[in-house]
Design brief:
Layout: E1 2-10, E2 13-19, H1 30-37, E3 47-52, E4 59-65, H2 75-87, E5 94-99, E6 102-108, E7 113-118, E8 124-126, E9 131-134, E10 138-143, H3 152-160, E11 171-179, E12 182-189, E13 194-196, H4 200-212, E14 220-225, E15 228-237, E16 240-249, E17 251-259
Parallel strand pairs: 2-3, 4-5, 10-11, 12-14
Antiparallel strand pairs: 1-2, 1-17, 3-4, 5-6, 6-7, 7-16, 8-9, 9-10, 11-12, 12-13, 14-15, 15-16
Bound molecules: the ligand N[C@@H](CCC[C@H](N)C(=O)O)C(=O)O.
């Protein structure tokens, strides 16, 4: 059987997209998803996303990491899925969709910039060495010196597999401050088990974490990731962080068919 796929990337975080509105995709075939994401034996991607029908929103997002396992929310993947939905005429310039962490609203402009509302954050753990929070996916955030030469894969894996996070693990973000509301970020992603060029939930977590520990008072934060630039905006209230938006480009790369 031939599988029609589309490849998208958001600041270098890349995804295989499949239109599964007809419900044909073998969702429990972990090995198949891992192979499709493999950069040598498959299409190559950090994750695979299914666009599915939903009764009360424009579509449903089902997200798998490149290890083939279904996982929690993917911010860049969500932004790319909005661009994919627009190309399929499922939406026009606005979308509501359901993902594993709940309801999302998004807009896409004429330049392909997607602004995606992320979940509210009302719980942030502050340690002397790091901040931990869940922005749809779990994120450990820590400031480091000399981010350019930092060994993200080795140090990220050490934290991800440490007793701190048990079997579930965590994504791990290493951050450097550039100016008051501008940070540089490199992320080790759980489920990819390597550094990726960008992580949207990680950028969101980093912006909130930097505000919480007083590195910035701004609620509009620029994040340079390895694959480009993201912006995160939020409102800080008594309850926590609301109206959290992840903003950046979402780009079609290529499409094709692959033998299953
Ligand atoms: N690339 C993502 C995060 C994807 C989920 C993550 N790997 C996990 O399993 O927690 C993003 O852009 O947010």
């Amino acid at each position: 059987m031939q599988l029609k796929f589309y490849k998208y990337q958001g600041t270098g975080n890349d995804f295989v997209m499949i239109d599964n509105r007809q419900n044909f995709f073998p969702k429990n075939d972990t090995k198949l998803i891992e192979r499709l994401c493999d950069r040598r034996f498959g299409i190559g991607a950090d994750g695979l996303i299914l666009l599915e029908n939903d009764n009360s929103t424009d579509f449903r997002m089902v997200y798998y990491n490149s290890d083939g396992n279904e996982s929690s929310m993917c911010g860049n993947g969500g932004r790319c899925l909005v661009a994919f939905a627009k190309s399929l005429n499922v939406i026009n310039n606005e979308a509501t969709f359901i993902a594993t962490d709940g309801l999302h609203h998004a807009t896409i402009d004429e330049n392909g910039i997607v602004s995606l509302q992320m979940k509210d954050v009302d719980e942030v753990k502050i340690d002397t060495e790091y901040v931990f929070l869940n922005t749809g996916s779990p994120h450990h955030v820590t400031l480091v010196n000399d981010l350019e030469h930092y060994n993200v894969k080795e140090n990220g894996a050490e934290v991800r597999y440490s007793d701190l996070y048990g079997n579930a693990g965590s994504n791990v973000n290493f951050v450097n401050q550039i100016s008051d509301n501008h940070f540089r970020l490199r992320t080790y992603e759980r489920g990819v088990e390597d550094e990726t060029l960008s992580c949207g939930t990680g950028a969101t977590a980093t912006a909130i974490a930097m505000n919480v520990i007083g590195k910035t008072n701004s609620n509009s934060i620029d994040i340079n990731v390895e694959g480009g630039k993201l912006k995160v905006k939020f409102e800080k209230t008594d309850k926590g962080f609301e109206k959290v938006f992840l903003i950046g480009p979402a780009t079609f790369v290529f499409e094709g068919e692959i033998e299953l």
